[in-house]
Amino acid sequence: MGYKIQTICVQGENARKEVDNTGSISFPIYQTAAYAHPAVGQSTGYDYSRLQNPTREEVERIVADLEKGIDALAFTSGMAAIAALMELFRPGDHIVATDDLYGGTIRVFDNISHKNGLHFTYVDSSNEELVEQAINSNTKAIYIETPTNPNMKVTDITKIVEIAKKHACIVIVDNTFLSPYFQNPLVLGADIVIHSGTKYLGGHNDTLAGFLVTNRYGISEQLRYIIKSTGAGLSPFDSWLILRGIKTLALRMEMHQKNALTVAKWLSKESKVVEVFYIGLPTHPSFETTLKQSKGYGGMISFRVDSEVTAIRILEKVKLIRFAESLGGVESLITYPMYQTHADLPIETRKAQGIDETLLRMSVGIEDIDDLISDLNQAIN
To answer: Which of the following is catalytic: 46, 102, 122, 278?
Structure first.
């Protein structure tokens, strides 16, 4: 009988690799670059920390267990993970991707991966017909983010998997916004899951990390060769910080969600708020899909206000909520996607996605809900 996810967050599901004989409850930080060999032709199982490090292996074990994968690889950032992922493909390969991706992902795809010979078609992946229409003879993968950043669109993972199988493609899902606590794409048939570990997994806005998780041995073997060769493995200390953060993931995600639902409902009643994008509202167009494939709604909200003046006033007047562009930490943050997370996109692309001067994105933290509502109220009104 497997453990519940709250237990897995704290101790993992599969057995911890005992590399320490002190009985330490907190997994040790192995801050070393190299390891001595007992004799010629013998090894302790560790040679060089670019290849393997006990602390990094421990956080990879926990993340793999949380996502129900066979392997997880820890990188120095979410973008480092995505850059390594692109090394699975060859010049001429084609990828169908969600059009409402994080701006940094689009920047890598359009300016680095494209330069290296990969081709991308961006579509609204919440519309499965558009996804299938975009597939051609050299399509190797469907890359989705659900919910999307920043418009909170939801893609039906199971339907995308059905399309991918029909066309011999792999399915890659960025699961950062919901975390493995609320959504497990591999269980739904996806092949690779991406996380910016900087966000909810770490949870404290104090370190950068990224993860790739897979349930396919061939992909695992390829990715292990790539991370060994390109060298973007997560450092021992940052691995330990993410390990510590994950221990409270279940508690934090419940509070993030509780606060976010209250904030979303409150914003929906404000006269200066034109539209609220939160997947936990029954008014969300994909609410039923969310109920089908996810165990919760998370802590991310986007909302549109009545004017640029109102948007700027909110950003300048919030006191408890911080004007910053990250997400997923215990502190509530609010950001201006047009000028921050998606600033590198061409203006016509931003406008087409509805990312304009009136759109704000909020990562709802775990502070007292009355304090958060009070801060929003004074900033808006």
So the answer is: 102
Entry pTM: 0.96
Determine contact, residues 93/252, Cβ cutoff 8 Å: no
Say what percent of the chain tops pLDDT 90.
Answer: 92
Q: Which of 199, 304, 350, 361 is catalytic?
A: 199
174 labelled catalytic: yes
1 or 379: which carries more pLDDT confidence? 379
Find the mean pLDDT for residues 265-281: 98
* Contact between 52 and 79 (Cβ < 8 Å): no
102 is an active site residue: yes
Which domains are present in the chain? Answer: 5-246 (3.40.640.10), 249-380 (3.90.1150.10)
Q: Is position 50 annotated as part of the catalytic site?
A: yes
In the set 50, 140, 247, 322, the catalytic residue is 50
* Chain-centroid distance, C-alpha 189: 18
Is the pLDDT at 86 greater than 90, yes or no?
yes
Confidence of residue 362 (pLDDT cuts 50, 70, 90): very high
Angle at 144 between CA 143 and CA 149, to 5 degrees: 130
* Residue of 99, 156, 174, 375 marked active site: 174
